[in-house]
Amino acid sequence: MRTRNVVLVVIFVLMAVLAWRNWTVFSELRPLSLVFVQVQAPLGIVMLVIIAVLVVVYFLYTVGLETAALLEVKRYARELLQTRKLAEDAETSRFTDLKKWLEAELSSIKAVQPSGLETKLQEVLTRIGQTETELRDDIEKAGNTIAAYIGELEDQITGKDAHKPPLR
């Protein structure tokens, strides 16, 4: 439980004990002025009802806020999955294009100079390895960045974030 919720529960319990111990005073009829009208009502009970309504409204507001934050995290997670799928599809299409280019290059090398095939093949394989490594690194960096953003949001929602969000 968050600290503020614990404090509110403690205050609520203290108010309940105070009301219980002084119930006769709380339930005494007193003249109350409602600006234009004067009525006889127990002031203590009226104030307790007002405070109870405020507590319920606060808790409903907090639940709504947390629900909205959780829905936002869910939306970010969905966007992360879509981005990863898009990156994987792009990687697949790049490899397909690379395969086509490699086949065309190899067939042109075979037609022109069969003896230099081994050297050219080694160069192409080296380029493929470098391209694959760079692509994997870029995808991993993008995934780490998005995961960090989601982690920050989760920390802010759960209250574990030590940093205050920037003012807008």
Brief rundown of the structure:
By secondary structure, this protein is mainly α. It has helices at residues 3-21, 23-26, 43-112, 117-158, and strands at residues 29-33, 38-42. It starts with a helix and ends in a 10-residue tail after the last helix.
Describe the structure.
- The longest helix has 70 residues, at 43-112.
- It is rod-shaped and about 110 Å long.
- The protein is 80% helix and 6% strand.
- The model has no long low-confidence stretch (mean pLDDT 84).
- With 168 residues, the protein is mainly α.
- The protein starts with a helix and ends in a 10-residue tail after the last helix.
- The protein has one domain.
- A hairpin with a 4-residue loop joins strand 1 and strand 2 (38-42).
- A two-stranded antiparallel sheet has the order 1-2.
For the termini, the CA-CA separation is 29 Å
Helix content: over 70%
The major β-sheet equals:
2 strands, antiparallel
Strands, count: 2
**Number of structural units classed as domains:** 1
What is the general shape?
A: rod-shaped
Rg, alpha carbons:
34 Å
Helix/sheet category: mainly alpha
In round numbers, the mean pLDDT is 84
Low-confidence stretches: none
Order of helices and strands: HHEEHH
What count of helical segments does DSSP give? Answer: 4
Strand residue percentage: 5-15%
Widest β-sheet, arrangement of strands: 1-2
